[in-house]
Amino acid sequence: MVEGVLGGRYRLGACLGGGGMADVYRAMDTRLERLVAVKVFRSGTDETGRSRFEEEARLLAGLSHPGLVPVFDYSAGGDELYLVMQLVEGQTLADILESGPLPPAQVADLGHRLADVLAYVHANGIVHRDVKPSNVLVARDGRVYLADFGISRLIDAVGRMTSSGAIMGTATYMAPEQVRGTGVGHAVDVYALGLVLLECVTGRTEYPGAGPESALARLTRSPFVPDSLPEPLRGILRAMTATAPHERPSAERCADLLSGEATDLIPAVPAETPRPPTRQIAAEELVREAAPAPEPKRRRWQWPLAGVGAVAAVVALLLFLQPPPEPAPGPTLPPASGPPGVARLPEDLANLESLVRQ
């Protein structure tokens, strides 16, 4: 390449930062006369790696999201292996955190934006694998970008891969399954974002130390999320940093929760019915409350009426219990049989006379 010019087009300027495999430069696109950022990977890959790099670069260039740094160009030929991206003027989140923790409301808003980016990228089949404060760019106008998407996959192409095939990411923010080497899925990005947001709100790195020490620490204890953090942020961070990948919410779900659009991660507890205030009762009042209430006084005119009513009730009871009187004996009827004809006439007349006298 021409001294300081990549591809005969990008004139390199000041170095903005670097890592183990690449450096980022401010550059001028001499063809379009605009400032860009160029990430230059160091040499040391074979043809297979270059083909993989080219494939991934095309995939990244096809992504479009307000929270992604657009990829304008790339090169995988000869000794030049680089990506050309939009230049974001501002600071990294790592630089901002050097001044101390951020307010919980600001952390929730930041988390909502980053989770939304992750949801978009996950939907396109990409896992970031290296979410950390230095990969979060905060522009001067307040916009937030998640940089280096797919770079961990690109790093696969330039040899940053162990013999077992496990990606070597940043140990401080790796998920437990990354440490164990049991598989890398979308949940590792959710876990890393949870640790980043936890660091933003507490002002401290949850798993500091050297690589192996930091990586193994999350296998012995879960992240400490202070009880003093307000809800629902506290519950969301605990869910995002769950040890088991299947227990973590998706990036899309995290974006909804952190924006306040969904609040059912933690069941709402109904408010208790307010109780009346407790009143101190003196001993004399307790005695009075325990004693039976006195019977109400009867009026003087009520006593005669009560007596008359009682007598009437007794008389009615006696009349009801008295046996009914026996019926008076009826007249003597003529015998059912007797002498027939005239011979019985005197007897019938005497019997009729006795009936009339009665």
TrEMBL record:
<keyword id="KW-0418">Kinase</keyword>
<keyword id="KW-0547">Nucleotide-binding</keyword>
<keyword id="KW-0808">Transferase</keyword>
<dbReference type="InterPro" id="IPR011009">
    <property type="entry name" value="Kinase-like_dom_sf"/>
</dbReference>
<keyword id="KW-0067">ATP-binding</keyword>
<feature type="compositionally biased region" description="Pro residues">
    <location>
        <begin position="324"/>
        <end position="338"/>
    </location>
</feature>
<dbReference type="InterPro" id="IPR008271">
    <property type="entry name" value="Ser/Thr_kinase_AS"/>
</dbReference>
<dbReference type="InterPro" id="IPR017441">
    <property type="entry name" value="Protein_kinase_ATP_BS"/>
</dbReference>
<feature type="region of interest" description="Disordered">
    <location>
        <begin position="324"/>
        <end position="345"/>
    </location>
</feature>
<dbReference type="InterPro" id="IPR000719">
    <property type="entry name" value="Prot_kinase_dom"/>
</dbReference>
<feature type="binding site">
    <location>
        <position position="39"/>
    </location>
    <ligand>
        <name>ATP</name>
    </ligand>
</feature>
<feature type="domain" description="Protein kinase">
    <location>
        <begin position="10"/>
        <end position="266"/>
    </location>
</feature>
<dbReference type="Pfam" id="PF00069">
    <property type="entry name" value="Pkinase"/>
</dbReference>
<protein>
    <recommendedName>
        <fullName>Protein kinase domain-containing protein</fullName>
    </recommendedName>
</protein>
